[in-house]
Amino acid sequence: MSSTPRRKQFKRKQRLQSAKTWIPTYTGKNLVRGYKRWYGVNFVCAIKELEMLGYEIDLEYKEQILKQEEAKRKAAKRRKAEEKKKQAEEEYFNSDQDENFYYIAGYTSGGAPYGITWWEYERDIKGKEDDNKNKNSVDPLKDVVPF
Question: How much is the mean pLDDT over the chain?
Fold first, then answer.
């Protein structure tokens, strides 16, 4: 059994029917906000349904709400994209290395990582990569004959 109030689970048809009896009992200052909270809908839905029930909503208020909702939507989309990017970066960097290991080949049965440490990488692998780069580079003075 759900702990959510039944009125917050209503579909539009049920909300409109229920609102006919709820609205006359509402004592707050802002009907749109009250409707939104009472039925658990967003501002856009509350405005649309109140207009369907015959209530007039101030045009400026309506535009302000629509702008706010659009800004929230864009911010959420941007936040989600940033979060996804951050998570992808963390997965890339954390998948096979950490602060001690350049490459983690695996883990022992006790959970300790093993692989190539940053020190070993600097000493062995990086030195070889630098040597290979130097061998492949063209030396402009190589074929010059001394006088």
Answer: 86
State both tokens at 81. Answer: 């994209």
> Letter for the amino acid at 115?
G
Whole-number Å distance between alpha carbons of 33 and 114: 58
d(CA 35, CA 77): 26
Give Cα 65 to chain centroid, integer Å.
23
Q: Distance (Å, rounded) from C-alpha 36 to C-alpha 66?
A: 14
The closest of 11, 57, 8 to 37, measured between CA atoms, is: 8
- The answer to whether the CB of 11 falls within 8 A of the CB of 39 is no
The tens digit of pLDDT for each residue in 106-138 reads: 889 998 888 888 888 888 877 676 666 666 655
Q: How would you label 84-116 residue by residue, b for 16+ Cβ within 10 Å and e otherwise?
A: eeeeeeeeeeeeebeeebbebeeeeeeeebebb
The model carries a pTM of 0.56
* DSSP assignments along 40-77, one per residue: T--HHHHHHHHHHTT----HHHHHHHHHHHHHHHHHHH
Is residue 64 within 8 A of residue 85, CB to CB? The reply is: no
